[in-house]
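Structure first, sequence second, as always.
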């Protein structure tokens, strides 16, 4: 009996000792943990989940760490933390600090303005290249350069053609004129012969001779002078065919050229084209024949242009479609090569619309961050349609009435990606 009592006493003593030791250890561990949580912790303002026990710079973004006493308390102090793949929780104070703003997804239908840029180009139907009809060499060049205004029949340069061919054409022209003059002067009163068929044949012959000279490059005004003087000339004048501006000049004194060489290019700029850059999803809102507003930095007064019926041309460099507009340019305010602002009024059908800044476009997918309450944000993949100005149509992924991040999305996305990588 004594042995049993002694054994029982020892067991009770050991149990009491173990309980006391466990309670002491738990108390000490809690004290240590409380002490650790009460210690100063340094965290990054941009990446609050990174914490350090000493000051320094954030290894993620390089920002200086901020001291935060007690920020290590479990369940508190962390400005954002992951609770699902890519989802984050951001406190109201932290949202205000990093500039996060929320908005409600709405279904809207209204009239808007599609703004883009365009480049002025000469109207191809009013552009006149002056091309050599024969080979030769430039004898004289007037002091007219690219961009200068010129008048119709104004002399720009002169050249020497192959003389045998040119002289022969002149002689044939003068002979035809002399025959017509001799026939006319042979009649009383120097009146043309009253034989309509003979007169028609003579006029047709003179016109054929004149066309031969025109093919060599002789202008209409020079032909008239040659008809008056009846003398062989050595040079052919290069003249402007219209009132306009010199777009290109390729001549210089002494230059030798072949047939087909372009001397000048003249453009009538009273009407011009504007080639506006439009994305493919915006094209359905631009109607042929519709009006657009044109404005340039040089001129405060806006001009009106009309959308051409021609098909848009795809530009590989900008990945946009070039929509052609036609505009009157009476005051010559628009010059070729000038960039202008273009505004198209468009009617938007009912659609879910969000600010463009609300969408994170990685190139392969588009994401918005939906608020789930208590500062929780979940990334949501969406599909988009048109984009007009700063608004984008969302065709799939969200519904009307949901609250999403519309500002500070980049910061939320960075935090989401970091959390998703950490959970893997």
């Amino acid at each position: 009996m004594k042995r049993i009592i002694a054994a029982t006493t020892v067991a009770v003593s050991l149990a009491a000792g173990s309980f006391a030791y466990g309670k002491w250890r738990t108390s000490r561990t809690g004290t240590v943990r409380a002490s650790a949580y009460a210690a100063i912790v340094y965290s990054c303002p941009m990446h609050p989940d990174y914490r350090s026990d000493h000051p320094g710079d954030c290894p993620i973004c390089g920002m200086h760490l901020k001291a935060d006493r007690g920020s290590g308390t479990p369940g508190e102090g962390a400005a954002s933390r992951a609770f699902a793949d890519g989802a984050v929780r951001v406190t109201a104070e932290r949202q205000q600090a990093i500039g996060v703003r929320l908005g409600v997804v709405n279904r809207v239908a209204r009239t808007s303005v599609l703004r883009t840029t365009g480049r002025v180009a000469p109207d191809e139907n009013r552009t006149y290249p002056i091309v050599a009809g024969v080979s030769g060499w430039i004898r004289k060049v007037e002091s007219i350069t690219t961009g200068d205004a010129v008048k119709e029949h104004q002399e720009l340069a002169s050249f020497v053609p192959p003389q045998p061919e040119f002289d022969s054409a002149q002689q044939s022209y003068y002979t035809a004129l002399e025959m017509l003059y001799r026939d006319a002067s042979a009649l009383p009163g120097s009146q043309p012969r009253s034989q309509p068929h003979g007169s028609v044949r003579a006029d047709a012959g003179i016109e054929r001779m004149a066309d031969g000279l025109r093919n060599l490059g002789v202008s209409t005004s020079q032909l008239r002078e040659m008809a008056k003087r009846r003398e062989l000339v050595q040079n052919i004048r290069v003249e402007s065919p219209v009132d306009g501006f010199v777009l290109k000049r390729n001549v210089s004194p002494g230059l030798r050229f072949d047939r087909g060489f372009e001397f000048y290019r003249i453009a009538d700029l009273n009407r011009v084209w504007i080639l506006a850059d439009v994305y493919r999803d915006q094209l359905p809102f631009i109607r042929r024949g519709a009006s657009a507003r044109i404005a340039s930095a040089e001129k405060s007064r806006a001009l009106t242009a009309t959308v051409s019926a021609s098909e848009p041309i795809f530009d590989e460099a900008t990945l946009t479609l070039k929509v052609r507009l036609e505009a009157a340019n009476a005051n010559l305010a628009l010059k070729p090569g000038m960039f202008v602002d273009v505004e198209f009024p468009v009617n938007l059908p009912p659609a879910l619309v969000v600010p463009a800044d609300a969408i994170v476009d990685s190139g392969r997918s588009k994401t918005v961050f939906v608020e789930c309450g208590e500062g929780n944000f979940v990334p949501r993949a969406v599909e988009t349609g048109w984009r007009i100005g700063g608004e984008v149509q969302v065709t799939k992924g969200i519904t009307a009435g949901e609250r999403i991040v519309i500002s500070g999305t980049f910061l939320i996305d960075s935090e989401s990606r970091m959390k998703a990588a950490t959970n893997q």
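Margin note: The chain has four domains: 2-77, 95-109+350-423, 113-123+269-346, 130-266.
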